[in-house]
Amino acid sequence: MPTQQASSGFHIMAKPTGPICNLDCTYCFYLDKERLYPQTRNWAMPPDVLEAHIRQYIEANHRQREISFAWQGGEPTLLGVDFFRRVVELQKQYGGGRRIENAFQTNGVLLDDAWAEFLKENDFLVGISIDGPAHLHDPYRVDRGGQPTFARVMRGLEFLKKHEVRFNTITVVNAVNAPHPLEVYEFMKSLGSTFLQFIPLVERNDDGSMNEQSVPSLAWGQFLSAIFDAWVRADIGKIFVQLFDVALESWLFLPQSLCFFRETCGAALALEHNGDLYACDHFVTLDNRLGNIMDQPMATLTASALQKKFGDDKRDMLPEYCRKCDYRFACNGECPKNRFTKTPDGEDGLNYLCAGYKHFFGHIDPYMRYMAQQIMIKRPPAEIMEAIRAAEENQRAEL
């Protein structure tokens, strides 16, 4: 998943169960990471590694009043509630009175009253992975028996609602749900989600061809544009769509808070169950393993020459075609994992999603200019909704 920049300079996505999951989503890129650890039988993060992670991450953020931890998988609920009770104990032990925040991503299937009570009591922000209503969610999000999971995810979500746990929705945009942007958007709103993340599915087969489940590039841009049109007319200030918020940062010429769109990367790392630290969640490979936090502190590993080069390569290897693009300021070539196509003049390194982003950024440009101007003159950007309504009413009156 895309990761927001931490104020300390780096953010760690911890995977305390490694790639182990109770589901078998057909598009999941992380399940095959089991092959990195062929001797592993117990995938739970050992107590000493957990303690080292929490202590070192807090030490690296010692100047911050608020420190944010992220827990993902695999599926973290497989560890049970008691594992995360220990997480909270350690955070209090080493926190020095600082405010600690926890983001917890789950498929929701194992959530129950005990989980929801714990998450509420400790104010975890829960990200629920859901791709739309049943007919859009179930084709790819299946269990290990190939059975659909929608009903079980919804059951888990009801426990969160019952206990008033903060949650947002994380939607993988793929070949099935991409043609239905407004249906997906309205469904997420009907769940009570007020913060929506959309992540494009871009996966290749072993022979380098595109996996048929991937979202077509232009379809990605059209999906975002259709939702934007609904959002900008009625939902600003009520519904927060991560990609729209980050786009506005770009039009304000602020540093983007999302790693995908920053000029350089390398500040969003992945911590495996055994303490191995990798350059990025999407680059958990042997050649991007920085070391192990039981051997060297994570602050040292994140500042290594290897990681600096990894981050700088995003900028330094950007094709000339992208450097001249009108929307470089907003995109910066997006995530390096998607840069595997050729530019029109044959240069390597063009992002697969380029056509989609060009469509999207071109579509939102006049709206973003207006909202950025509003902010600069200290006016609410939500005033654009009334401006659009007035303009459309005038158009109708002229017909």
Please provide a written account of the structure.
The protein is an alpha/beta fold and about 400 residues long. About 40% of the residues lie in helices and about 15% in strands. It has helices spanning about 45-60, 80-95, 115-120, 135, 150-160, 180-190, 215-235, 240-250, 300, 305-315, 320-325, 330, 355-375, 385-399, and strands spanning about 10-15, 65-70, 100-105, 125-130, 165-175, 195-200, 240, 270, 275-280, 290, 340, 350. The strands form two sheets. Strands 7-6-5-4-3-2-1-8-9-10 form a ten-stranded mixed sheet. Helix 6 (about 180-190) links the parallel strand 5 (about 165-175) and strand 6. The chain is globular. Residues about 1-10 have low confidence and may be disordered.
Structural class given helices, strands, pairing?
A: alpha/beta
Give the number of DSSP strands. 12
**Shape label:** globular
Oligomeric form = single chain
What is the structure about, briefly put?
Helices cover 39% and strands 14% of the residues. It is built from 14 helices and 12 strands.
Protein topology:
Layout: E1 11-14, H1 47-60, E2 66-71, H2 81-95, E3 99-106, H3 113-121, E4 125-129, H4 134-137, H5 150-162, E5 167-173, H6 181-190, E6 195-200, H7 217-234, E7 240-241, H8 242-251, E8 268-271, E9 276-278, E10 289-292, H9 298-302, H10 305-316, H11 320-323, H12 328-331, E11 339-342, E12 348-351, H13 354-376, H14 383-398
Parallel strand pairs: 1-2, 1-8, 2-3, 3-4, 4-5, 5-6, 6-7
Antiparallel strand pairs: 8-9, 9-10, 11-12
